[in-house]
Amino acid sequence: MTEFESLVAVVTGGASGIGLATANLLSSRGATVVALDLNPDVKDPLVGIRADVSDDDSVKAAIDEVVQRFGRLDVVVNNAGIGAQGDVTANTDAEWSKVLDVNVLGMVRVSRAALPHLRKSPSAAIVNTCSIAAWAGLPQRALYSASKGAVYSLTLAMAADHVREGIRVNAVAPGTADTPWVGRLLDSAPDPAAERAALEARQPHGRLVSADEVAGAIAYLASPLSGSTAGTILAVDGGMYGLRLRPK
Ligand code: NAD
After folding, report:
1. What is the ipTM of this complex?
2. Cys staple from 75: which of 9, 28, 52, 94, with CB 3.0 to 4.6 Å?
């Protein structure tokens, strides 16, 4: 299948986890894919460009480079993000600023730089990586949840603003996904294997979400197969949201 034949896609955070799985999937379906990442170490045919989504000049230069090298830009996957733990007292103002800057403003900066190019595409789509943390009321995730809540609202606002100019904006909301990020969190636990087993047992379908499953949802929302879908937040969480289950 070649839904993305002749299209150019950028994936922020495209060198690891969900972003890398997405970059590989879009590439296998015909796209030229550029991973924008702090550490853009990706294998051919993916192209890596260093970019820091918390730095507007870096983002502008990276998007300019993509369009200069490949002549167009059709798909943006706003996926780069960082985590934070603890209740509302746990993080300093500087930490709040940093996480909101990367997770929310990062998407704003990339979208702002990309929109003039997306307007020229017959197949323009933006997909943001949200999280079930946006609405699930996860304990000990105040800052992270607030950042993803903002991503949720931003996605709806962007969808409303751009759907009439042919640019569809949607988001995926993964549950706990098996990525290097979650691997690092598990490794820091006293008993990583026991922690993993407990985490798996908490998921409705008894296992972590795979990065490839999230990538599949992103690819769908980025492709013409979802040509009439905008302003949708697609949960990829083993059914937690759809079944209205509480995180255990
Ligand atoms: P990951 O840590 O494996 O990958 C994140 C990538 O983003 C890394 O390559 C990192 O270098 C890059 N990155 C970080 N800060 C950046 C910046 N300022 N500029 C450019 N690149 C930057 O993480 P992941 O688990 O694949 O998470 C990807 C996205 O999915 C994040 O937005 C995260 O919030 C979201 N998410 C993850 C899970 C999960 O359980 N893993 C669940 C829900 C949502």
Report:
1. 0.99
2. 9
